[in-house]
Design a protein that fits this description.
heterodimer, A: about 110 residues, alpha+beta, Arc Repressor Mutant, subunit A, three-stranded antiparallel beta sheet, 5 helices, globular, B: about 425 residues, 3 domains, ten-stranded mixed beta sheet, 10 strands
Chain lengths: ~110, ~425
């Protein structure tokens, strides 16, 4: 399905989501998008169409847990936080990302 | 779950709309822009939900493939398990079909549960059959039955064909069709004259005989069959599948109740059957008929004093004898199934023990308990389905080939009308 085609993009989104949740104890879906946008200085914009499917998958895998709560504006939202397994997964993803980028750079640098 | 998801997504859109409003957009524009930016709401919901189904589907297909491969690698095991299961299931299925057809299904006549068998009991006369005179009196004097009729059979030689043919003829008392609740598929019932002594000789023929001898031609009505020196005119054709009292019956003729030789009260000719009035219980009918017979006993003390009437449901009377043997049969095939399952369980256990290494490797690679269990269970499921399919196949072919050992009178009950 869609997953196979945008493999890299999906994988990056997972990494970004996990990292966002690592820096902040718990965030709801909208907060995650703003966080990524702000911290990346607007270089990255989360495609909102893929955010919630990705969050759902993370929940299925057991890397995040979710619970309903109230925002400061007293609205009901679903807040996500990392699980221990999620932290482990984040470390693995960061590792693979470092390897990937290093490899790409090396290939590009060779000319 | 869907509603929660919608709430969550709605919240997201609201927050986005808020942000746009802070930047100066009007409320309506902000909301619309937020929705647009979010993309199609419904597809979002569906896509999130599809993640689940997609994963599940993928893992199921994978499990099935692995399972088939694993089973193919150990053909001896697979064949043994499937055959064991097939035999056990097939046997159970066949026996239960028989039990259903014979014991559980109601008689294939309209309101079959109203049909009863009547008999007389006398300390010195072993035959339970009833004399014609008494049968008529019972029919006339009782309050609880719609009608009582009776029959007896004989083998005859039919001579009108190329070769003499042995056929089974049933002599029936009046009201036979009424009690049975059937009408001839062609032709009519016997007329009162035909039911009297000296009246025209008439006969019903079975559907089977009609097709064989007359090619199913409607002009068979009116033609004659020849039995002994007499010609018997065909006045009716019985519906297909009607074979009462047994599967050999091909001819039905009226038995004249007013014949001079039928007047003795000591005759024991008729196997009597009757139909209860709607809503009447067996107990009431028994009480009523006992009363009737008691009155007759007073009138005809010499012959009737010691006679007691018996009424039983017709189904009981026809299949009752086989009940015990069928249930014993059922018990033994159930035991067979139990033994088969125990065997298969043992085989599966030994197979699982041999795969301990494989399973531990799976766990170490990070598979969850549920995933490993699902994979093993898929294998068992495939075995079970294969065994069951084969078993049912065996059962249906057994029904066609083998004879269920019923008394001949049962045939009417097992073949539906």
């Amino acid at each position: 399905m869609g997953m196979k085609k945008n493999d890299i993009l999906q994988g990056t989104l997972v990494l970004l989501i996990l990292k966002s949740l690592a820096s902040n104890r718990r965030l709801h879906g909208y907060a995650i998008t703003t966080h990524i946008q702000q911290v990346s200085a607007q270089l990255l914009r989360v495609e909102e169409g893929s955010l919630y499917p990705a969050l759902h998958r993370l929940e299925q895998e057991g890397w995040v847990r979710a619970e309903w709560g109230k925002t400061e504006k007293n609205r009901e939202a679903r807040f996500y936080s990392l699980t221990a397994q999620g932290r482990k997964q984040l470390m693995q993803e960061e590792e693979s990302w470092k390897r990937l980028t290093e490899g790409v750079e090396r290939v590009l640098g060779y000319a | 779950m869907q509603r929660n998801l919608e709430r969550e997504l709605a919240f997201h859109v609201t927050e986005r709309a808020d942000e746009l409003r802070e930047r100066g957009m009007s409320e309506a524009d902000a909301l619309r822009a937020a929705r647009l930016q979010f993309g199609n709401f419904t597809t979002q919901v569906e896509r999130t939900r599809d993640m689940d189904i997609h994963d599940w589907l993928e893992s199921s297909v994978r499990n099935v493939r692995y399972a088939l491969r694993g089973l193919a690698k150990t053909p001896a095991f697979t064949v043994t398990v499937v055959l064991t299961l097939a035999l056990a299931i097939g046997a159970n299925s066949a026996v239960f079909s028989a039990i259903y057809a014979v014991l559980l299904r109601p008689l294939p006549f309209p309101n079959g549960d109203q049909l009863v068998k009547l008999a007389q009991s006398h300390p010195k006369i072993p035959q339970p059959q009833v004399a014609p005179v008494r049968l008529e009196e019972w029919n006339r004097l009782n309050d609880t039955l719609q009608a009582i009729t009776g029959y007896y059979e004989e083998d005859v030689s039919e001579l009108s064909g190329e070769l003499p043919e042995k056929l089974r003829r049933v002599f029936v008392a009046p009201r036979f069709l009424q009690v049975m609740g059937v009408v001839p598929s062609l032709g009519r019932d016997f007329s009162p004259q035909e039911e009297r002594f000296g009246g025209p000789n008439t006969v019903f023929i079975s559907d089977r005989l009609w097709r064989r001898r007359f090619d199913g031609n409607p002009n068979a009505i009116g033609k004659s069959l020849r039995i002994g020196t007499t010609a018997w005119t065909i006045v009716g054709i019985m519906p297909a599948g009607f074979r009462y009292p047994n599967r050999d019956a091909d001819l039905w003729s009226p038995s004249p109740m007013d014949a001079p030789f039928a007047q003795s009260r000591e005759l024991t000719w008729f196997t009597a059957i009757g139909r209860l009035k709607p809503g009447v219980t067996l107990a009431r009918a028994r009480a009523n008929l006992t009363n009737v017979q008691a009155n007759l006993a007073r009138q005809y003390a010499k012959t009737d004093a010691e006679i007691r009437p018996l009424i039983d449901p017709l189904k009981e009377a026809t299949v009752g004898g086989t009940k015990k043997s069928l249930w014993i049969l059922f018990g033994s095939v159930s035991l067979l199934l139990l033994i088969a399952c125990t065997n298969i369980a043992a085989l599966l256990l030994s197979r699982a023990t041999g795969r301990r290494h494989e399973i531990s490797v799976r766990f170490s690679l990070g598979a969850s308990r549920a995933a490993v269990a699902a994979q093993l269970l898929t294998e068992v499921l495939i075995l079970a389905l294969a065994g069951a399919a084969l078993g049912l196949l065996l059962a249906t072919s057994a029904r066609r080939e083998c004879f269920v050992p019923l008394p001949r009178t049962c045939r009417a009950s097992t073949r539906s009308g």
